[in-house]
Design a protein that fits this description.
With 484 residues, this protein is of the alpha/beta class. The protein folds into three domains: 4-156, N6 adenine-specific DNA methyltransferase, N-terminal domain (Ferritin, Up-down Bundle); 158-433, Rossmann fold; 453-484. 45% of the residues lie in helices and 12% in strands. It contains 17 helices and nine strands. It has a nine-stranded mixed sheet. Helix 11 links the parallel strand 2 and strand 3 (247-249). Helix 8 (166-176) crosses helix 9. The protein is globular, with a radius of gyration of 26 Å. The chain starts with a helix and ends with a helix. Residues 448-452 have low confidence and may be disordered.
Length: 484
């Protein structure tokens, strides 16, 4: 099996020679639609063998196997002309009313060819042809490929908003525990990490063909940006979803809150809404006046409360700012604690989302319906010997074993939970008295704080004196050098 890093590096090295792809973001976007077509073609080959009457939604000349598979095939200016003037325009305008035609059309509506050298494009295509996405090893490798690409994207800016560490995704899904027959939603689905994890979780429960068919339709996702949406489609195809058309390319927040009907409510929401970003002007007017803000994460929290069915469960990632923020944030938290049972907050340490952001994050778990009586906190520690996480040493699912052992059962009100050095319980009365501040520190590991002012002031003055002395010495040495 080819090494993932080597495959990605060799493709990127080829693309860097092309004058049209001058940034990692463009290279990834280019690879996004190329991977989609290759993977879709591999799936079609498989479908043709399994189903006698299988008919491709694509005209024959647009299928990857027709124009890309032959390594000695179309190249140079002819390849560029075909991609720019035939392939992409026809995919964007693909006719046909079924869900697969619509899926392909929406996948390609914002796709671009940035490459300007057809010979280099042929070299990239040939590298992609070296992967067989019907082989389980290569399917698994695609996950590693785009994870590697997303990690490389840090220099391009906003990759972090659609990348969640696998361990965090898996832990949230396992604790929320979606079950067969339930509707699952990720309203900010990025590349589909939460959806894929939920699908795999449900497959472990499937016992019949009917169960397997139900999993094809039981989830939905919405993604605002073109690039992660294409990667999400590809990811779902690779994970055995035949027509992932229930993932829309749209801005979830652009729809007025009152327009979401009771029929659209779901049993389970698992998500990492973008945080630290601001929505465009006017988006906040889709929300009731008391909840109006342009902070994306806060608006998503309001939306989640609306979209859950009574008894529905949610697990999501939120930044510290939502926990301690005031004003609109206070009103949102009051509504959350009134309309839902916010039973657990897992406080993650610094660095979980490195290198994209140093913002501290939390995992919130709540159930719609009963009011919150108390909130359990669990402070997730670093593994022994670690002081932070980084690209080479990310957070791992094994680290969540203590939380899982402590978790207990929601049906009995988590009666088995006990306080320990990492876990503590806060009654709702204390939270209300603190104006709904949820940024509460571990009482079993009290922060020593900044220190005593009577001790710190002399230390500070001593430091200033040392700085002045050092500056004086440097100035004297400089004057001496200048007068020689």
């Amino acid at each position: 099996m080819p090494n993932v890093s080597n495959v990605v590096k060799s493709i990127q090295d080829i693309m860097r020679k092309d004058a049209g792809t001058y940034g990692d973001a463009q290279r990834l976007e280019q690879l996004g639609w190329m991977f989609f077509l290759k993977i879709f073609d591999d799936r079609e080959q498989e479908m043709a063998l399994l189903r006698d009457a299988y008919k491709s939604p694509l005209p024959q000349h647009l299928r990857w196997s027709a124009w890309a598979k032959d390594e000695e095939g179309i190249t140079g200016d002819d390849l560029l002309d075909f991609v720019n003037n035939t392939l992409l325009p026809k995919l964007k305008a693909l006719t046909g009313g079924d869900r697969m035609h619509t899926l392909i059309r929406t996948t390609f509506e914002d796709a671009h060819n940035f490459m300007k050298n057809g010979t280099l494009m042929r070299q990239v295509i040939n590298k992609i042809n070296g992967l067989d996405f019907n082989a389980s090893d290569d399917r698994h490798m695609f996950g590693d490929i785009y994870e590697k690409l997303l990690k490389d994207l840090q220099s391009a800016g906003n990759a972090g908003e659609f990348y969640t560490p696998r361990a965090v995704t898996q832990f949230i899904v396992e604790q929320v525990n979606p079950r067969l027959g339930e509707a699952v939603l990720d309203p900010a689905c990025g590349t589909g990490g939460f959806l894929v994890c939920a699908i795999e979780h449900l497959r472990k429960q499937a016992r019949t063909e009917a169960d397997a068919r139900a999993i094809q339709e039981c989830f939905a996702g919405i993604e605002k940006k073109h690039l992660p949406h294409v990667l999400c489609m590809t990811n779902l195809l690779l994970h055995g979803i035949d027509v992932p058309s229930n993932v829309r390319h749209d801005n979830t927040l652009a729809r007025p809150l009152r327009d979401w009907s009771p029929k659209e409510r779901v049993d389970v929401i698992v998500t990492n809404p973008p945080f630290g970003g601001m929505e465009e002007d006017g988006i906040e007017s889709n929300f009731p006046s008391e909840f109006r803000t342009r902070e994306t994460a806060d608006l998503f929290l309001v939306l989640l409360m609306k979209l859950l069915k009574p008894g529905g469960r949610a697990g999501l990632v939120l930044p510290d700012g939502t926990l301690f923020g005031e004003g609109v944030k206070t009103r949102i938290k009051e509504a959350l604690l009134t309309d839902c049972n916010l039973h657990t907050i897992v406080r993650l340490p610094n660095g979980v989302f490195n290198p994209y952001t140093g913002i501290r994050t939390n995992l919130l778990f709540f159930t719609k319906g009963p009011k919150t009586g108390h909130v359990w906190y669990y402070e997730h520690p670093y593994p022994p010997g670690a002081k932070s996480y980084n690209k080479g040493k990310p957070i791992r699912i094994e680290e969540f074993a203590p939380e899982k052992a402590w978790w207990g059962d929601e049906a009995d009100g988590f009666k088995a939970r006990v306080e320990n050095e990492f876990a503590w319980r806060v009654p709702i009365e204390q939270i209300k008295a603190g104006n709904f501040n949820l940024d509460l520190k571990n009482p079993h590991n009290p922060d020593e704080g900044p220190g005593d002012v009577d001790h710190l002031l002399p230390e500070y003055e001593k430091l200033l004196a040392q700085i002045a002395e050092t500056r004086g010495k440097l100035k004297a040495q400089l004057m001496e050098a200048l007068t020689r």
